[in-house]
Fold:
Amino acid sequence: MGVYRDKVLPRIIDKACSSDDIGKWRVRATDGLHGIVVEPGFGSGTNLPYYPDAVTKVYAVDPAVLGRKLAADRLAASSVDVEFVGLDGQAIPLDDNSCDAGLLTYTLCTIPDPMVALAELRRIIKPGGALHFLEHGIAPEPGMQRWQYRIDHVQKRVFDGCHVSRNHPELLTAAGFEIEWSEAEYANGPKPWSFFHLGRAVNLA
Ligand SMILES: C[S@@+](CC[C@H](N)C(=O)[O-])C[C@H]1O[C@@H](n2cnc3c(N)ncnc32)[C@H](O)[C@@H]1O
Structure:
């Protein structure tokens, strides 16, 4: 699992997550971000081309060392100041209230304890600041949900902890974020993996 996770999976994720189709959603997920942003699951920097000019700094958090290497071209092409600050979204070495906003794209599905990661984001993002999210997860139809619960067991092994059945809006609300707006729909692709939530949640004081 070590070689696959460290040397192969980041390349698969980089290819799968940099499609034009997903790019359309990244434009919307990053819209309105400004100031200092924390991005757990930075991966290979797939959001970098989409950050608005108003973003002055991004604190990147990700355990995948190869992801950073694959981000090299995007980092070189971007005017955003990126600093790698940690390996785990569940324990981020940043001060309380040190960021204006956060960005999570296709990452909360993978972090082992999403509630711990969301508590970290609540600690780090200033009160009233926003967490923008684009995450695939549980579909609304019970029949599809049954498939997703079945798939989860294999999915977690093949994609290093990724779940297809997490309910991200529910997790965000339970963690103390208020969802300002969210949209949910199927993207192109196999349905159990393609239902996603896009939106903006506010860190309540
Ligand atoms: C499916 S990829 C998404 C990458 C990127 N956010 C995107 O939208 O293309 C999930 C990312 O989460 C990272 N990840 C896994 N466990 C993590 C953790 N505990 N904390 C932060 N990131 C983690 C993986 O290394 C990977 O880069």
